[in-house]
């Protein structure tokens, strides 16, 4: 079979950026040569002819992020663009703030696999974007957030909302003696939810919430570089009309979703993900307070980023967490029946997994080998039903454990290429093994591709006497 390029659609919506594709993996179906190619296609960075030599003004909130290797810092604007700002003030990775400045459409900055506009910053401000409850104190409107912070609201038309109303508010923040004040740029009935984002045939962005509701988004939020298989958390102002619901002033970020183990952490429990490359660092997950140590669970929630003004910023804390017992495996996808047929291994019997989400057919086409994981809705011998599952390109190959180039150790596959496994289960270098898992490009290796939540077993060496 000929080589197949697997591409992930991404969305660019501002000044010459068009809906392009980012190549994240290239898999030869005959040789299973696997490598990472995370650079944006050059076409995505070519400005429209009418926009050449223009200087563009920007005023947007966003989130400061670093890549998984910790080498590149960029600002993901709520307008859907990636920026390399000339200054970030005292803000650090994970912070939400407001930037204003200008950039030249001909000046594109790059850092490893990240490309974006070089922003000449003219102002930096504290910012807030989130939900809370409206209260009136001394005839002045205040917002009380779910974590107990109190803000005065300036420039808000709050009279049309009754005290006790759940609101979404966005704006810059001024510090006063009475209380921090949000200089409101957007306010209205709150929409919040976890789910997935897709592009509609009309070109608009749609969000399919876990509740089953589908809404239209007025802008991407801070999700630049994400793909259609990702899981997101979205907030904004809900506006309902006969034609449907639109969410405006959107803030959005990729959410946390992973299978892993419950571990002892301090006087309680923590979570170590098997499908992420965190090198066994544990996360705090409130939803696991009563979970047994050693249990395999699936955790969803807000990532440890997008912290606005005054918000506590604990390390590796998953906010709004949900958890349930989990299942994962590698098998063949049947899109029509929404099922993955997982063959028997030395680790588990054959199982048919019924799933909700079959993924982007460009990345996980019908009949392809996939990795699937998610919380268990029901289970019986030989069958399991998952809800809110994730899906990745799967790998089931043999190779040798070798010393790596960036991350180490790696599995050098018999048919060419290599992967960085989540675990080698204590096996020595040069052992011949079979590995199964899901491909994950988010690894701290500049030239590597990760194999998430993998199993590994010793197999006969084809080249040994």
Q: Give the end-to-end Cα distance, rounded to a whole number of Å.
A: 31 Å
Residue fraction in strands: over 45%
Number of helices: 0
What does the largest sheet look like?
Answer: 14 strands, mixed
What gross morphology would you assign? globular
Helical content band: under 10%
Based on helices, strands and strand pairing, what is the structural class? mainly beta
Number of strands: 31
Q: Please state the CA-atom Rg, rounded to the nearest Å.
A: 23 Å
Task: Round the mean pLDDT to the nearest integer and report it.
Answer: 86
**Which spans of ≥5 residues are poorly predicted at pLDDT below 50?**
1-51
Offer a concise description of the structure:
With 465 residues, the protein is mostly beta strands.
Describe the 3D structure:
The strands form three sheets. Strands 4, 5, 6, 7, 8, 9, 10, 11, 12, 13, 14, 15, 16 and 17 form a 14-stranded mixed beta sheet that branches. The radius of gyration is 23 Å and the shape is globular. Helix content is 0%, strand content 54%. It is an all-beta fold.
Features:
465 residues, 54% strand, single chain, 14-stranded mixed sheet, mainly beta, 0% helix, 31 strands, disordered N terminus
Write the layout of secondary structure elements.
Layout: E1 4-9, E2 21-27, E3 34-36, E4 55-66, E5 73-77, E6 82-85, E7 96-104, E8 108-111, E9 114-137, E10 140-145, E11 150-154, E12 166-174, E13 181-199, E14 205-209, E15 214-217, E16 232-241, E17 244-254, E18 256-265, E19 268-273, E20 284-285, E21 296-302, E22 317-334, E23 339-342, E24 351-354, E25 369-380, E26 383-386, E27 390-402, E28 410-413, E29 418-421, E30 432-440, E31 450-458
Parallel strand pairs: 6-9, 11-13, 15-17, 20-22, 24-26, 29-31
Antiparallel strand pairs: 1-2, 2-3, 4-5, 4-7, 5-6, 7-9, 8-9, 9-10, 9-12, 10-11, 12-13, 13-14, 13-16, 14-15, 16-17, 18-19, 18-21, 21-22, 22-23, 22-25, 23-24, 25-26, 25-27, 27-28, 27-30, 28-29, 30-31
């Amino acid at each position: 079979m000929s080589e197949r390029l697997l591409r992930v659609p991404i969305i660019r919506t501002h000044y010459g950026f068009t809906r392009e594709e980012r190549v994240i993996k290239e898999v030869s179906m005959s040789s299973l040569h696997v490598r990472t190619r995370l650079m944006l296609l050059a076409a995505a960075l070519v400005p429209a002819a009418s926009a050449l030599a223009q200087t563009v003004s920007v005023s947007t909130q966003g989130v400061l992020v670093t890549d998984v290797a910790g080498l590149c810092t960029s600002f993901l604007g709520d307008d859907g663009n990636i920026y390399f700002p000339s200054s970030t003030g005292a803000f650090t990775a994970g912070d939400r703030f407001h930037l204003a400045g200008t950039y030249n459409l001909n000046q594109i900055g790059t850092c490893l696999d990240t490309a974006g506009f070089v922003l000449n910053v003219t102002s930096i401000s504290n910012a807030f974007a989130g939900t809370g409850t409206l209260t009136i104190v001394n005839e002045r409107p205040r917002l009380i957030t779910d974590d107990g912070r109190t803000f005065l609201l300036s420039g808000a038309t709050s009279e049309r909302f009754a005290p006790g109303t759940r609101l979404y508010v966005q704006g810059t923040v001024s510090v006063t003696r009475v209380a921090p004040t949000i200089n409101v740029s957007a306010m209205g009935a709150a929409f919040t939810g976890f789910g997935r984002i897709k592009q509609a045939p009309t070109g608009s962005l749609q969000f399919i919430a876990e509740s089953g509701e589908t809404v239209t988004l007025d802008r991407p939020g801070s999700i630049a570089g994400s793909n259609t298989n990702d899981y997101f958390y979205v907030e904004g102002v809900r506006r309902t009309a006969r034609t449907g619901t639109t969410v405006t002033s959107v803030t959005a970020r990729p959410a946390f979703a992973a299978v892993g183990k419950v571990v002892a952490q301090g006087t309680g429990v923590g979570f170590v993900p098997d499908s992420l490359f965190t090198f066994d660092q544990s996360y705090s997950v409130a939803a696991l307070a009563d979970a047994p140590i050693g249990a395999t669970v699936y955790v969803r929630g807000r990532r440890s980023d997008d912290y606005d003004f005054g918000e506590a910023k604990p390390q590796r804390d998953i906010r709004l967490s949900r958890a349930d017992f989990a299942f994962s495996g590698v098998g063949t996808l049947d899109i029509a029946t929404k099922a993955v047929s997982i063959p028997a291994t030395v680790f588990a019997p054959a199982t048919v997994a019924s799933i909700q989400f079959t993924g982007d057919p460009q990345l996980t086409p019908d009949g392809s080998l996939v990795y699937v994981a998610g919380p268990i809705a029901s289970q019986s011998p030989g069958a399991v039903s998952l809800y809110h599952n994730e899906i990745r390109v799967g790998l089931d190959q043999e190779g040798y454990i070798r010393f790596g180039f960036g991350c180490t150790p790696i599995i050098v596959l018999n048919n060419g290429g290599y992967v960085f496994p989540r675990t080698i289960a204590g096996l020595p270098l040069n052992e011949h093994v079979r590995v199964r898992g899901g491909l994950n490009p988010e690894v701290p290796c500049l030239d590597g591709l990760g194999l998430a939540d993998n199993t590994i077993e010793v197999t006969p060496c084809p080249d040994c006497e």
